[in-house]
Design brief:
It is built from 13 helices and nine strands. It is globular and about 80 Å long. The longest helix is centred in the N-terminal third of the chain and has 25 residues, at 3-27. 44% of the residues lie in helices and 16% in strands. The chain is of the alpha/beta class and 379 residues long. It has helices at 3-27, 29-45, 49-54, 56-80, 115-139, 144-150, 152-161, 184-191, 203-215, 237-240, 265-268, 290-300, 330-340, and strands at residues 174-178, 195-200, 222-224, 244-246, 258-262, 275-281, 301-311, 343-353, 367-375. Residues 94-113 have low confidence and may be disordered. Pfam families: CARME. It comes from Euphydryas editha (Edith's checkerspot). InterPro entries: CARME, SAM-dependent_MTases_sf. Keywords: Methyltransferase, S-adenosyl-L-methionine, Transferase.
Length: 379
Amino acid sequence: MSSIAAADEIDEAKERAHFQAVVNAFKYYKLCSLDRIHKSEKIISMLQPNHQRRLEKYKSYLVKFKKCLDVNNSVVHLIIKDVDTMFENVDHSFDANINGTESFGCNYNNCEIPSQKQHKMQHDVEKVQSVLKNIVRDWSDAGAAEREQCYKPILEELESRYPTEEFSDRSYIKVLVPGAGLGRLAWEIAARGYSCQGNEFSLFMLFASNFILNKCPEANKHTVYPWVHQYVNHMTSEHQIQAATFPDVPPATKHSHFSIAAGDFLKVYTELNEWHCVATCFFIDCAPNVIEFVERIYAILRPGGYWINLGPLLYHYSDMTNEISIEPPYDILLDIIMDVGFEVLKEQTGVKTKYAQNPNSMMQHEYKSVFFVCRKPSL
């Protein structure tokens, strides 16, 4: 076997292992989430009787939290149903004997797996919990305010660049949305007649978007409790069990020029001068080296094409010990963008945006994002 073939085999094995780990995180969502409720129950049971009496009402809500987890778990299992066949060119068949009711050592009383593995599983389950919040952000009435903040400026900019008076048929205008998440922005762009492709790297997001976009023909058929995992900063316990229904619109109504491509943005998109527009929302700070993203966006845009961006500069790799990360502030990033060759047509700072926030929480995270429009010069 050649060294290249051996390396490919290793990469394929790693890919399969990662796929299985993500599937397992969804399967053990309920068990690991229950662990947090069990912890509260145990602590309360150890208090003096008078304190326990004063927490009777709260204990009744802990029972309700478990019922919410049951509802969430039913959605979680719908999401991963048949995911082993969701990619056309890859078979990720996995062990069907694994299920979310078997012991996985998440219970704090009886941890049977090494602490490092347990930590990894709980970290992955937290990503599943995050997916539930992203479902609300992208595909529920409760997320409308955030979508108005984050997606509307991009959609309006597209309208101004490609008005229907001049572009009665937009299907030949190719728009790419890297970091598409659960696909709502890309879906909205396609709904306006453009040929749009979303790109996403995270299997957590890809599993959920596949379910919503392909298997949800009815509006508001499913229910989730996205905030049941948040135990602090509540005005009332009712806020913790606030439900949301999804999808607010039936996305399975197909758009003929809409698709989602899985994979690393830098590896998937290498063809030069292909796209009329690249729309990025909360994406560019996901790069270890943001300059690579800027250069690639410039390369794949057609001459005269537009880059529309909205988001903060969180720089996701910044605090990861074993990862490289560069974190230029916005003024230096803007210099880099122009040095690569872009013309900056529009720029707005201090754009207030939120990301998957609980509207009833006492604590709110709000970004002062940047919104800009750049153009690759015509030949």
